[in-house]
Amino acid sequence: MDGSFDAAYVKEIRNKFPRIEKDFNGRKRIFVDNGAGSLVLEDAAISEMRSRIDHSANTDAIYSESRANEFVISEGRKAVRDLLNAPNSWNIYQAESASDLFFKVSYALKGVLDRDSNVVSSYAEHFANVSPYLEMKKYNAISELRLANIDREDGSIDLNHLGSLMNRRTKLIAITAESNLMGNKTDLKEVSRIAKENDALLMVDGVHFAPQGYSNVREQGCDFFVFSSYKIFGPRGSFMYMADSVLDSIKPFHVDREANPGMGSYLEIGTRDQGVFAAMTTIANYISRLSMDLSDFRKNVEAKNRKVAIRKGMKRIERYHKVMSRAVLDGTDRESGLNSMKNVVLYGISDTSRLDERGTTFAFNFKNVSDKRAEEIYWKKFGITVVGGSHWNLSHDYYANPSMLRATFLHYNTIDEVERFLSATRWITKQ
What is the rounded CA–CA span in Å between residue 339 and residue 347? Predict the structure, then answer.
């Protein structure tokens, strides 16, 4: 499979996700609602549980349980550092959600943003990445939120239009790494170039991208990068990378009177949940082992260089995702793909020669069946978790289409599941 995962490897991966075959009621199903939140890695849940039991004491004391709590949090920051290829663990901050982090940063930029400045974003965004600036505009804290158009044919962000929106008053670009609706990836290097040429900061929403590709913040050239742990096999909660270059320019709200740039409490309000950090350490170790051969993966062999192994593991995931994306779009020997199905309107990049530009999320409508009815058929007849709705994405506004169906495949899904999804979709097209 082009250096990705063969069937035996995927089977071993699936063994690590207890709800991969059946839900908690024992209902057999195919889980493709991964865009809303991934399934949980069992080892991560165990790590979280053990940390809640063993390290429930608060930090900043001399006794062992308190020190152990601090250690778990410190190791979790290092794990996220390695996941993102960040320079240091002090660049990593944690909060209850991505929305929480986006709002915290918008507040902390009060020394950068003012009523004469503007923020540039796009119509490909999750609402959480633009809502802080809509709020700021409402109260005249900024002059304008400018949205770059997307291509009506394939949903990709028009970066030429984005560049034309920039001026000397643009202080920030807020952009998605990958559309949580259509699965299109953003050329972050080009966006970073545009930001730097205009002396603007770059905020990247990496929530949907994190389980799909290698997040290399140094190469991407961003100032902020946010992702959610529950989208990448863990518990609720989110993390953010913040570059050294902006540590002194932000002015966050905090309750720690001794907080300084580089300290967690500089941006984190209140006591951290050590269980989330414990889970992230386990997830980082798991992804690093995806770089190994099947024998070492089964044995849970520890990577000698976790950061390098994570890059190799995520690149392997990317290759496997391309195999699945090609199957979804163009079909397999046994099933036709979405590209050839009548009564299916597909959004996002559909050309399989451009798989490097998209992930494994697919948005579509049926011409003959409503989204609500299709969602019911997928679940009640076929046991497939395809979900309709707005998915909190501005693309719905751009297309004047309030609802699309969405299916997202991750590395624990199989080609057989893709084929069963395609078979169900084909059945619905004939109703």
Answer: 11
36-89 confidence digits (pLDDT tens):
999 999 999 999 999 999 999 999 999 999 999 999 999 999 999 999 999 999
Name, in order, each residue with C-beta under 8 angstroms of 272's C-beta and a sequence gap of 6 or more.
Answer: 59, 73, 94, 264
* Spatial contact of 98 and 228, defined as CB atoms under 8 Å apart: yes
Residues 30 and 119 in one domain: no
The 10s digit of each residue's pLDDT in 393-426 is: 999 999 999 999 999 999 999 999 999 999 999 9
Please, how many CA atoms are within 13 Å of residue 88, restricted to the half-sphere of its CB?
A: 10
Q: Are 52 and 427 spatial neighbours (Cβ–Cβ below 8 Å)?
A: no
DSSP annotation string for 262-328: TSGGGT--S---HHHHHHHHHHHHHHHHTTS-HHHHHTTPPPSSHHHHHHHHHHHHHHHHHHHHHHH
**Angle at alpha carbon of residue 40, lines to 37 and 46, rounded to 5°:** 145
What distance in Å separates the CA atoms of residue 98 and residue 80, rounded to the nearest whole number?
15
- Phi, psi (deg, nearest 5) at residue 414: -115, 165
Distance of CA 333 to the CA centre of its chain: 31
The rounded Cα 306 to chain-centroid distance in angstroms is: 21
pLDDT digits (tens, 9 = 90+) for 217-251: 999 999 999 999 999 999 999 999 999 999 878 88
Rounded Cα–Cα distance for residues 277 and 214 (Å): 20
Number of residues that make up the chain: 431
The DSSP result for 3-49, as a single string, is TS--HHHHHHHHTT-TTSSB-TT--B-B--BTTT-PPPPHHHHHHHH
Residue 293 within a domain: no
pLDDT digits (tens, 9 = 90+) for 242-268: 999 998 788 888 767 777 777 778 888
**Domain range holding 358?**
7-41+306-429
Is 211 within the bounds of a domain?
A: yes
One-letter amino acid of 39: L
Burial class of residue 138 (count of CB atoms within 10 Å of its CB; 0-12, 13-18, 19+)? exposed
**393 is a domain residue:** yes
Q: Which helix (H) or strand (E) holds 198?
A: none
